[in-house]
């Protein structure tokens, strides 16, 4: 009964805040975990699903506006977008030093995401082999965790303004399964340092991360690549700023794609030069059928 009342309360609050998205919850190991989605979207059986994850201190309903461009493609490209929520606004990702309650209480994120996959497979008949994950900042770290610990359930990930933790700050046990990964990082990011170091976020300690190049090469080596990636320059979507985007890609038939979008002069924020989640979906689409 309490679960039903709790869910009804969340849905009521969600509808009052946003006319399209609803907020609901799942009971996972004694903790209510929330997620948002748009029930008005009509997808066909066999749809792909993309988890879009907020950063540290965020929440799914407020973050859903960031997925608007991606969601506008839902029906034409048969993709369902779901916004999971961290526990008390934070994720139990792979940073050992994190003082967030989700980490100190070791919340079972794998159980949460497995339950979400099963829920939407039942509800919408999604293709469980085409489940993808992308996230911003702390959500990007959660995307890394899914790639490291759930590669059999997640087809590919896209991490935005996030570097992998250093070895000393890593508390995930990697399954070491090759997986397509895209990283989008800004060279002027003072929160997630492009060249690695201490992550600075108010109210929580998160420890040190590797450099962007080290994070990129971790996945490249895991996926069987060596040598130099192919470099290109993305179209300048906003000529009013000083941002350019360099694209570095490892791609070979029979191997997962690994791509880095180097946002020159980019900070710890969403850029206006391109839509980060739409670009993630373009990357994910390239992995379908491989």
UniProtKB/TrEMBL annotation:
InterPro entries for this protein: AB_hydrolase_fold (IPR029058), Plant_Biomass_Hydrol_Est (IPR050955), PLipase/COase/thioEstase (IPR003140)
Q: Which residues form the Phospholipase/carboxylesterase/thioesterase domain?
A: 79-200
- Alphabetically list the UniProt keywords: Signal
Q: Which N-terminal stretch is annotated as signal sequence? A: 1-19
Q: Superkingdom, according to UniProt?
A: Bacteria
- PANTHER family found in the cross-reference section: BLL1128 PROTEIN (PTHR43037:SF1), UNNAMED PRODUCT-RELATED (PTHR43037)
Output this protein's name: Polyhydroxybutyrate depolymerase
Q: Which organism is it from?
A: Dyadobacter fermentans
